[in-house]
Amino acid sequence: MCAEEISATKASATATRSPKKGKKYFSVSEANGALIYISPIVDEIADCYKVAVDIREHIEMTEGSREQEQLQDDYDKSMDRLNDLLEELHLVGVELKDFERGLLDFPAVHEDREIYLCWHRGENTVCAWHEIEAGYAGRQDVSLLEQGR
């Protein structure tokens, strides 16, 4: 690879991680403030998801039975509610990464690049962050964001 290609590849990788105009980004304090609203939604999503999975399994076990129509109706209602809840999170600007664990990413900016502030059910505050590509396994303490300034 020549120097021009390497430079173009680096520029392309940086461009995809650069903040996007018009996108909602959260500070740690904004993300923590949003938890008051978001936390109950995430709890309901986890519960609703579990119900939908249970109903789906029951539908598969009762193929051809009379109760299958009612189960399908219950499943459809659960999925509709789940979609409504996901839309609420989308409107806030957060991304749900795991239904069962209630894992959320809040888009944020650090050192002129996009990162995610990371939170999951059971945590009282947003206490971790990770690079976009790193995912949950790359979580680091939010105090490191302050040290880098």
Shape: elongated
Helix content: 40-55%
Number of strands: 5
Order of helices and strands: HHHEEEEEH
Mean pLDDT: 85
Gyration radius (Cα, Å) is: 20 Å
Structural class: alpha+beta
| Number of helical stretches of at least 4 residues | 4
Strand composition percent:
15-25%
Major sheet characteristics: 5 strands, antiparallel
Instruction: Give the low-pLDDT segments.
Output: 1-16
Strand order of the largest sheet: 1-2-3-4-5
Give the total of domains. Answer: 1
**What is the terminal-to-terminal distance?**
34 Å
Give a topology summary.
Layout: H1 3-17, H2 28-61, H3 68-92, E1 95-98, E2 103-110, E3 113-120, E4 128-131, E5 140-141, H4 143-147
Antiparallel strand pairs: 1-2, 2-3, 3-4, 4-5
Helix pairs in contact: 2-3
What can you tell me about this protein's structure?
This protein has helices at 3-17, 28-61, 68-92, 143-147, and strands at 95-98, 103-110, 113-120, 128-131, 140-141. By secondary structure, it is an alpha+beta fold. The chain has one domain (23-147). Strands 1-2-3-4-5 form a 5-stranded antiparallel sheet. The protein is elongated and about 60 Å long. Mean pLDDT is 85; it is low at 1-16.
Question: What descriptors fit this protein?
Answer:
149 residues; alpha+beta; five-stranded antiparallel β-sheet; 5 strands; disordered N terminus
Short description:
The protein is an alpha+beta fold and 149 residues long.
